[in-house]
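Lab notebook, bench 4. Still working through the backlog of constructs that have no structural model yet. Next entry is a single chain of 588 residues. Request: give me the structure tokens for it.
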Amino acid sequence: MSDPHEEKRAGAGVPADAGLPADPAWCEGADAVGPSESALPDEPFDDPAPEPGPVHTVAVLGAHLGGGMLAAVLARAGVDVVLVDAPHDATAPAGESTVPYTAEVFELLARRFDVPELSALGHFGELPPEIRRTSGVKKSIGFVYARPGEPVRPRQKVQFNVPSEHGESHLYRPDVDAWVHQLAVAYGSKVPPSRAPLADVRGGPGDFTVQLADGRSVRAGFVVDMSGPDAPMLRRLGTALRPLRHSSRVLTAQLRGVRPLERRVDPGDGGTAWTGGTTQVVFPGGWLQLIPFGEERGGEQALTSVSVSLDAKRWPQRSASPDADFKDLIRQFPDLEWQFAAATPVRPWSGGEQWQYGASATAGEGFVVLDRSAVRCDFTLSRDVTLTAELVHEAAVSILGSAEAGDWSVERFRGLESFQASLTEHSDRLLQTALTATTDFRLWNAFCRVWLLHSMFAALSLKRARNDALARPGAADQWAELEGYRGNGMWFPAYPGFGVLFDDTYRLLRQVADERVTAGAAAERIFGQMRSAAFIPPLFGFGDPSDRYYNFTPLKRVKVLLWAKRKAPHLVRRVLTKGATIQPSVTE
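Model written out:
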């Protein structure tokens, strides 16, 4: 029987009537899964003169999830866009997990820009069968706390079980990215012949020449560079990628033979099998995230994505290779050593120092630098995929506005530049806080609840803002509530208490890092805030450290709605009552 993760797919999941050109002369090779393995030339092209050919309105560099979604949205709106592969699209590690808030951003992209297929990225059951077969529904997110030299303690586990209607996903990126690429082509995005990858960009605003590795070129008036950290448009800005405050070593691989953790670490009463969802093994100074794929994720031969994030001060590199580095790490944790004893790599281990980065400037004359070209954070807590979806939404708004106004000046993209910088700052603070919380289980137990509350209510608040906008079709200010950054990762109306709780947690954990407050004292203060907060449904039990399993049953849902109608603050009531249940159908 063939292995679904190792088969090449052409246009996986795109229906036959999705609008693919019958004779795609310009889109030759558009059904390829990824870019060719062409090497970049040793020297830049010497002839700057543009070749004959159309000058497309926009060139999107980077044919991965983010670039494909943006190209699909722009093409759907009638923009002449060309989607160009980047050299590392198919090999660069990328986020593979969603949370309810991620799904809500996908839903917004689908509704606002009339690309309904994008909704499926947030509703696992709506994905094409081929994608569902190689990916996986995410039923839970679990945290297991480990100490060097010790087995996991029975009461040092937390698990949030996701209600089935969320349809959260583990996204097998080779297939998902190929499907989104086909979607962009179906909506009218152009693709260079043979999908030769980007080599360089010449020219200037209004007539850039994108040189390809096979010697051909395409032309565009405006460039969106999402190609990666060696982005050519980043070099034009003359700005360096700066390390973020959360600066860790990251190791990634995809393995087979990973033993299911539930065979060694009992999820406990109220818990479900770890392999049913995303599991994060947390230890002082880092974490290891497990994402199983496919229909039989509980078996040892399931494909499992593994990403490790390590504080370089506490966990300095001791081995010459990422593979040996990983083995040195797991030898210190008995349960992990057992789990990975027979594991073998399918995608080899990769790793590097100072994994996280952010660009200090991202807008120039005739171009913007976006997503993986401008920022890279950890894969934990679904930050990678979530940030990509948020940036695609904001970029689409900016680019479509410029296309409508016929104004491509850099000033029109300062808002996008600021928005990206703000989200980078939020991700950095979140991950920096998470790293400090790993020093003590009591602290992690408190922090992960703050994170979950933030994600849940961000999803609900964004959904409310979206539904309010959809109820006013044609209004000049229809989408005004989604304009303007409000802090703490929120760019939509939300109850201020969520931001206050996040800010207080961040400040408190900075004091723990500076040894001004003990971990135990900080944890109790956070739990105390959650017990007294008027906006947190008491039924959640988030203020009780011993209540370590979150299961949102139908009965609990009814009780939360009753609480919302009777006692919740007004802005909380708006997102919890009629029309604001998490994750609606795309036809709602």
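Notes after review: The radius of gyration is 23 Å. Residues 6-48, 579-588 have pLDDT under 50 and may be disordered. Flag for follow-up if needed.
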